[in-house]
Amino acid sequence: MSAVIIQIILSCMFAFSASIKLLRTKSMVQHWNDYQYPMWIMNITALLEVAGVIGIIAALWIPGILKYAAALLSS
To answer: Which of 3, 37, 47, 50 has its CA at 20 to 30 Å from residue 20's CA atom?
Structure first.
C-alpha cells in the first residue's frame, strides 16, 4: 500500500515538473538560460518526464513497467 502512495506522489511531482517545462514558465526559462542549456532540450526533458509519469501510473496495474519508467525519469 505504501508503494502505491509513493508512486502516486512521484507521478504528481514529475507531472508538475513536466508541465512547467512544457508551459515554459518564466522561472523555468530563466533557470535554463542561467545554465545556458538549449531550449529544445527542455522540451525533450519534459516529454521524457511525461512518458515516465505514464509509466509510473501504468505500473500500478503492470508492475514490470516500473523499472522502465524509473529509467526514463533517471535520465
So the answer is: 3
pLDDT at 65 over 80: yes
* Residue in the block written with cell 508503494: 3
DSSP state of 61: T
For 46-58, b/e burial (b = at least 16 CB within 10 A) is: bebbbbbbebbee
Compute the distance between CA of residue 8 and CA of residue 43 in angstroms, rounded to an integer: 23
pLDDT tens, 33-58? Answer: 999 999 999 999 999 999 999 999 99
- In the numeric block, the cell 501510473 is attached to 57
Phi and psi angles of residue 23, each rounded to the nearest 5 degrees, phi first: -85, -5
pTM confidence score: 0.87
